[in-house]
Amino acid sequence: MARLADYFLVVGYDLDNRVEGEGQGHILQRFPEKDWEDSPFPQGIELFCQPSGWQLVPERQPASFFVAVLTDINSERHYCACFTFWEGLDGSKVRQAETSEEDEEELAVVQSAQVFAPKSLVLVSHLDYTEVFRNCLGLIYTVHIDGLSVPLETVIGNLLTCFIPIAGGSQISVSPVCSVDTVPQALACDWLLACLQRTITLGAGDRQVIQTPIDDSLPVSGCSVAQLFRQLGIVNVLYLFCAALTEHKILFLSSSYQRLTDACRGLLAIMFPLKYSFTYVPILPGKLLEVLSTPTPFIIGVNSFFRSETQELLDVIIADLDGGTVTIPECVHISLLPEPLLQQTQTVLSMVLDPELEVADHAFPPSSMQPSTLKIQDKEIRAVFLWLFARLFQGYRWCLHIIRIHPEPVIRFHKAAFLGQRSLTEDDFLMKVLDGMAFAGFVSERGPPYRATDLFDDLVANHVGRIRRDEACPHKVLNHVKELAEQLFKNENPYPAVAMHKLARPSENKQNAARNQKPFPSLDEVVVELFIDHAAAKLRTAPPVVKAELKGMVPSGPPLGDIVDRNGNVMANSARRLEVVRNCITYIFENKMLEAKKLMPAVLRALKGRTARVCLTQELNQHVLQNRAVLDDQQFDYIVRMMNCTLQDCSHIDEHGIAAALLPLVTAFCRKLGAGITQFAYSCVQEHMVWATMQFWESMFYSDVQNHIRALYLETEEGEPQNNSEQQGASVNGRKMCALELASEQNRLWPTLGKETQAEHVQKEESTVFSQAIHYANRMSYLLLPLDTSKNRLLRSSGLGDVESVSNSYVTNSIAGSMAESYDTESGFEDAESSDVANSVVRFINRFVDKVCNESGVTNEHLKALHTMIPDIVQMHIETLDAVHRESKRLPPIQKPKLLRPTLLPGEELVMDAMRVHLVPDGREEATGLVGGPPLLPAEGAVFLTTYRLIFKGTPSDPLVGEQEVTRSFPIASLTKEKRISVSVPMDQYVQEGLQLRSCTFQLVKIAFDEEVASDLAEVFRKHMHKLRYPQHVQGTFAFTVGQSGKMVVEHKAKDKNQSLKTLSKNLVRTAKKTIGRQHVTRKKYAPPTWGDNRSSFQSELDEDEISVSEEVEQSSLTLSSTIRSSDRQTMSNVVERACCRDYQRLGLGTLSSSLTRSKNEPFRISTVNRMYTVCRSYPGLLIVPQSIPDTTLQRICRCYRQNRFPVVCWRSSRTKAVLLRSAGLHAKGVVGFFKSPNAPAAVPSQADSTSLEQEKYLQAVISSMPSYSERTGRNTLGGFTSTHMSTSDSSDKLRQPKIGALMKQVMGAKDDAPGTFSRGALGQRAKVISLSQSKASGKARNPPRGKWGSIRGGGRPSAYNPDVGTRLAGRESPQPNGGPTEALFLRQHKAYLYIIGDKAQLKGGKQDSFQQWEVVPIEVCDVRQVKNSFKKLMKACVPSSLNAEPGMSFQRCLEDSDWMALLHRVLQVSVLVVELLDAGSSVMVSLEDGWDVTTQVVSLVQLLSDPYYRTFDGFRLLVEKEWLSFGHRFSHRGAQTLGSQSSGFTPIFLQFLDCVHQIHLQFPMEFEFSQYYLKFLAYHYVSNRFRTFLLDSDYERIELGVLYEEKGERRSAQVCKSVWDYIDRLSKKSPAFYNYMFAPEDDEVLRPYTFVSNLKVWGFYLEETLSEGPSYDWELGGRQERAAEEAADKSDSKSQRRVVWPCYDSLSKAAPDAITKLLHDLQGLEAELGHAAERWKEAWDKVKSAQRAEVKLESKPSFSGSLLMSSNLSHQRRSQGVYLQERGVGSSINLALECEASATSTPVAGRTTTSTLYSQFQSTESENRSFEGILFKKGALLKPWKPRWFVLDKTKHQLRYYESRRDQECKGVIELADVESVTPGTPTMGAPKNIEEKAFFDLKTTKRVYYFCAQDSLNAQLWMDSVQSCLSDA
């Protein structure tokens, strides 16, 4: 029985008490005044009556009603029903009250004569009957308003004495209702009536029926759930549902208080059977809003009035009921229901809420598809959620552990097993729910096996089968849901037929007569108290009402069974695998070790599957006799290995119970080590996280306790003991019961037992738990104390001391803390390390014991005893382990493979000898066998550190490939990153500490040190490695220390040996002094250049003297020999022999003869201004500068450029005589001065002006050197202008112009630049060619774009004949060497004589004079940092450190993210642009960054593309020596070769260049003499530091250290090569590896590669690996290994010549060499057999080639090999003529040659078909057979237009074929030459192309018809006619 109402209050507005200007409410009266014992009075009710604050209003408002919920300290909820109405007050009183407090704020509101104050009638109850409360309070108000005759005291007294049953539905016998009238006589009959009808009346002529639910455990929801779904929608409510279950903060907003309460009630109702246990406030008063910032979860409702104050809540989910929205903050992640559950729930909910949705598309929808009424719909929705929870929690009772039965059942839930059986361990939602407080409450409430059951219990026990069957069919689910809804509805409305409500409402006129209304009276407290006392007395005398609780055993339902992993594949559990596991274990115990060894890899693979692991534990169990199994060493070893493999895939919570099953086994298997010393398996399987997880130990303990307690009762009942190890899931067949059933039976019998028996049961259970606790303390110490207690790896790595329990219960009274402390203090500081281990283990076990014993009710005495025992247990175990550890060390090492010694280079010495390690697989899959092939990794072996390399050598761990050798090495100088790692290897021994070493030769060595390697040794290894990687000075690198002792060389001793260096430096200083003596000394006018810290001693002398040096010698005599005195010539001869000089002479850029006449005529000279490296430290000693510029000017100009790197010439085109210059970017101060107009008036010529003038002079001198410029000067007349354009010029230029425009556009960015930048708006536009005849029209019609690439600058005149333009027109006078056609009558676009490629960022804001002959092309260069970061990402993409788990991150995606290809594209694009400009006859100056990174890349690539010489061995070497070494690329700095440059990091600028060369090589394979291997070789050795070539940052540094000319002076040792070039020369003589057999260059071919990213390929250098021998770039090693392999092969008598070649293991080039290499090798072998002197391969090759040429000349049909090797037709098909045609009527050019197509598409070269393949089956090799091809216009048949076609004249087939375009595969037509009668010049006919001269037409007459053709010009027409004629005459 329960009171309907606990308290009744009247709360009113407090006029006297205002806080901070806000009104307050206060309780006017309260009944009863004393608190009930069972229900204390809740505080703060007055706040909840007016949640938005107490305020006075000028108008009366309608009465309102809502229910607030208050929760007291005992978590009891009080429902406060508030009925509020408004009473009038006299305005004057209020004003007095206001002013007395001197508060003016609210006066404005209260100015009217009468104001209204709120008053609330409040009813406080434990029960939630909203409607009943509304009716009761409404009645009281009606009695007051209408002035009914019933006294208010009577109504309130009856209300407070009304008792109703809590539950029971229509069970009439247990529903007494208390007195409802004051008249005692009437009492009896009313009582009886109420009992029958469950009716209450308050004695005011009212009557209402209260529907008490049948089962009070089910929540009562009314319509609140349906209402909530209507307000928010399905998805939003599901979000809120999941958020509430996963303990998030939820805030409801609404302007209605009752709706807030209903929404909160609805949310709680759908959470059933879970109960919400956090803060729950459906209506929160405005004054308590700070509660929202509480850190704990909550469900709170707040009026929308306070919306703005909820905005800054960052972690609160806000549901707006009025707007229907749910706002989830970004930082909040809500875990949703697992799929497919979420989808199915949504479907069923939509079927309930919107049944019409399903048939909305039907042609004949059913007539009635209305959703149920709101009340029924409410129950249907709740039924859906009940169904959902039944699915989520099905089988939960099988995972309950009962650990005590008496006196009270203690139940724990085994979360890991539950998740494991459901395969939901990964599911975030379920994990959070099971960890939550609500589920903890669920377990404690529903766990007990003997109790009353409800709808949910029935559902989980009896309907799981149906739920599983129906889950896929929504309609069946809906039927089930409707059945459940019916039960829920019946529970809430047990007798819906009775409708006996009779309630009075206030009459309308009374409600409106506001002014006359009297205030609510003060009630007579005595009368009300009398009622209450009278009722209390009645209750005392009445017989006690006992509700017969129907307790019973709670059924468990069907067991979960094994729900297979959703993605579980059949293979994982195949019977074959289990058979393998069983056989292997049998072999081990039968001692058939060889058989077991063969099966082992398969077993270890099989153990990845769960069933195989279970099978293993079952099999091992059979070999345990009486808890012990003694094995020999090898058996023990195998068993431990299998256990480790099984455990390594277990998660830390052990959801499949594998670790639990192994726990008894690891303490059973053992081996004898010595006298009385036994080693158990547990000492070898400790390295797993599961042992350090408190949760695992708890569930294990509870599981064991349950088994023991079950055995205890079975034993006592039946007198026969049961087997302990029986699992808890035993079925109830016969008398075997599961533990829960047993417990239920015991609970039923408990009340019938006597006191003694009860006490005995309790004592026995407690002792069982206690003994298990001792047992587990031992077990835990076994698995937590490491074998070597001084080396406590497990505990430290997992932070065991800090692991908190992750269970559902909370420890209350712990004694552990104090005990553990006392143990700590006792132990003192004697053996600090081992006590550290012991302490953490003791603390961990103490915490465990504390927790489980408190939960399972162990007595305090026993607990204390345990705490004293634990330190002793641990200490004893440590002593035992020490002995085991000692003995185990004496064991012979377990078949560890013998260490293999690596072969070393001559001069390479070991720094650290072999350290046994495991090479662990990284992210590359090839070696691990994942993509086929044998698993070569992991491998066991040793790591060696030498002065040059770091080498791993060993054998694979997999016995199937155990006889192979694995080598992985890299030069120590290429190490870029070293990182410590901890590794778990599934091998015999467990290895932890490891290193991951990454090298920029694209190698990653991931090693794990073997346990025999002491950790301090590993540290020594790291230190040595660092010392070798970053020596103090470059002389400490291997290239210098080679051949010396293995100690590090830091002192600069090398200098003493080197006499030539001494003489050189002396001579340099002497020359400097003499030169200064000879020179005329002036006080300086400008600051001399500074070089930062690079000053040497003689340089600083010059600086300090503050003298400026100006040569007296006149510039004409400045040849090299005249400036150097004879005494210095010997020194300078070395300089002259440098690469630069040889190249300059080859290019004709300067002469070394002293004949002045000759040198005067040449435009350039070799300047020695930098011979002392005083002008620019990073430039070479000899520089090419314009003849007219004296050295003094150079010294001044250099200051304007960064690092003093002023522009110098580095290459000249032999054809166009355009030159390529390189320099650094300008200093910021120099830019503006540089581009100032020379005509700008300046009052005082400042220093900056003079410098900028000199710069201009310098550039002008460069321009003047160009023949095209010097020939044009003086032709600024009209005649000159026209003649220039009439004259012949290079047709290929014309073809190329539009391409340059497009290139410019790409390079500079496609957007048109803003005016004012140097492009002047036109460089971005596509270049246009404007015809003369149209110039006037175009001039008037639109502004022609300004700029040299657009059109002629009009200068405001309409005429295009602008005399000023003549000098600036592009094109050359000289006729084309191949006799190309002259230019047609139209204007070429204007081009500059000199283009300066500059950095966009640096060139902002200057203006350029329109009369200068140079133009600046601003481009964006890649920053060094970009390259560095890109390279790091590239390395991670090509050599990942671990397999990438993310699905999207494929190799291609990582490669793209690295941006490496985009950077290559940018460099190549700029280079191709420069090539185009040079080829078009303009000079180019590359002036980027400091002039030593991107500048070097671009300049080198330009020369490589433009000059075939650089594509040979000698040329490429010369190019690298000249541009990279002499011009000061900072190899040491960029390669981080020394300690000083360590911080700058590795930046592969040179590697990027080599990659670009590789890309060009791929596109033009026949243009390079060297092979791809040559490039890889350089890429490897430029970072290896094996050679001195790529050390140091400039020639100056090399001279200073004596590296530059040392080869000349000293005898080279035969073994050690100091230059990489000499080494390559030496190897080239022996082997053709560096040679490209396809080398067949075309004369003077300029290469134009495609640069789009889609045309670029990933370089093989980044991806290749040869594990059999390591990198193939140190040839001495390869040779030795091959000899050893051959000897081994000779010994073995294998008949077969075949062998398996594995990718990533074998070297493909050696295993399967190409045909030519193989033939050359066989030839050498045969010669050796015949005893002939072996011929060098090159000579043999040259002989074959020359013989081949002779054959080709003789034969008309060449052989296949000839066509492969010699054909120039296979070479890149950009070698062709094209005809440049003018399109009619449009001022732009059409380019019909291939260039145009190439620029428009990004087809890679490989996809292009050469013209030669268009002939049917055979190819012709020599160009005589394909005598001519090109584009001709051909007139169609009658009335058809002229069309361009690609014609091929084929001498072999005697045909003239034509195609649509050059790349067309299909022939469009054939003219048989046999039918041709004559070829004659023709005349233009109607529709012929315009602007073509008359002589360009010719006719071809055949027997059938006449063909009309038109060539580009007369010359081309003549060529065609001659070619056809010659074919005819040959025939």
Brief sketch in words of this structure:
This protein is 40% helix and 14% strand. The chain is of the alpha+beta class.
Q: Can you put this structure into words, describing what you see?
A:
There is one protein chain. With 1931 residues, the chain is an alpha+beta fold. The protein is built from 65 helices and 46 strands. A 7-stranded antiparallel sheet has the order 25-24-23-22-28-27-26, with helices on one face. It has a 7-stranded antiparallel sheet with strand order 43-42-41-40-46-45-44, with helices on one face. Strands 3-2-6-5-4 form a 5-stranded antiparallel sheet, sandwiched between helices. The chain is globular and about 140 Å long. 41% of the residues are buried. About 21% of the residues have low confidence.
Overall mean pLDDT: 75
Low-confidence stretches: 99-110, 169-197, 562-572, 719-735, 793-799, 801-833, 1046-1067, 1069-1131, 1154-1158, 1230-1246, 1273-1298, 1310-1389, ...
Distance between the termini: 126 Å
Major β-sheet strand ordering: 25-24-23-22-28-27-26
* Beta content: 5-15%
By DSSP, the count of extended strands is 46
Radius of gyration: 49 Å
Structural class: alpha+beta
Count of separate DSSP helical elements: 65
Task: Estimate the helix proportion, in percent.
Answer: 40-55%
What's the story with the biggest beta sheet? Answer: 7 strands, antiparallel
Outline: globular
